[in-house]
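Ticket #4471: structure output looks truncated?

Reporter: J.K.
Steps to reproduce: submitted the chain below (107 residues) through the standard prediction queue, then opened the result file.
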Amino acid sequence: MKLAVFAIIVAVAILLDIITGLLKAFYTKSFKSSVMRQGLFHKLGELLACGLLYGVQIAAPVLGIEANLPLFQVGVGYCVLMEIGSIIENLRAFTPGIDNIIGKRGA
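Returned output as attached by the reporter:
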């Protein structure tokens, strides 16, 4: 799979998390621009971390390191899993019965 596809996947996951976070904030009447700004910086940090991993993966062979590790793909996978967890948490706030769809919440 091309690296651009991984970048698109993480960008879509981040966008969905932002949208569901906004919906949660408006639904619960708890919208605060400072919280949103903090969240956006966290998302930017995730994108920068993925960019760093991409750079290391591209630069490694140039530097003579033949480890052939899929650093970027692993980093994107981790970010997407984090975003999925956050999206589910946001959905729980305004979607009755979602636990019946995705499974019961732990104790």
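Triage note (M.O.): checked the attachment and the full token line is present. Residues 97 and 103 are 10 Å apart (CA to CA).
Status: closed, working as intended.
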